[in-house]
């Protein structure tokens, strides 16, 4: 009888899982109640790591939004100065409109998240 590789992998994984489960049960019996007493600490530790990661992610998003807002405001100010010096050039008007749109978009996104 030939056993397929997929079936043999399934059997091997099942054996490993049951073997590890047996080892964990033996360790839990040897340690007694200390496993149950320590579980809340490690659950809280895992939750705090997740919260720290989320906080870091949101802090990076906020920093990025502030950088984009500052750059778009600088672009608006620069475009306004160039447009004032040469009002007939429509390229600066177009650039000013795009910069205003970008600044408004960043303001709207930061307002919606608050």
Brief sketch in words of this structure:
This protein has 114 residues and is an all-alpha fold.
Mean pLDDT: 81
Largest beta sheet, briefly?
none
- In angstroms, what is the radius of gyration? 30 Å
Query: What structural category arises from helix and sheet content?
Result: mainly alpha
Approximate helicity band? over 70%
Can you count the beta strands? 0
Question: What percentage of amino acids are in beta strands?
Answer: under 5%
Name the helix and strand elements from N-terminus to C-terminus, one letter apiece: HHH
Could you describe the 3D structure shown?
The chain has one domain. 90% of the residues lie in helices and 0% in strands. It contains three helices and no strands. It has helices spanning 5-31, 34-85, 90-113. The longest helix has 52 residues, at 34-85. By secondary structure, the chain is mostly helical.
Characteristics:
114 residues, 3 helices, elongated
SSE map:
Blueprint (H helix, E strand, L loop, with lengths): L4 H27 L2 H52 L4 H24 L1
């Amino acid at each position: 009888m030939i056993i397929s590789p997929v079936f043999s992998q399934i059997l091997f994984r099942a054996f490993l899982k049951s073997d590890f489960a047996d080892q964990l049960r033996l360790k839990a019996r040897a340690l007694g109640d200390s496993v149950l007493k320590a579980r809340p600490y490690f659950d809280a530790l895992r939750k705090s790591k997740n919260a720290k990661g989320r906080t870091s992610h949101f802090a990076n998003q906020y920093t990025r939004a502030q950088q984009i807002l500052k750059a778009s405001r600088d672009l608006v100010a620069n475009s306004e100065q160039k447009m004032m010096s040469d009002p007939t050039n429509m390229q600066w008007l177009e650039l000013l409109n795009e910069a205003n749109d970008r600044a408004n978009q960043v303001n709207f996104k930061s307002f919606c998240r608050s």
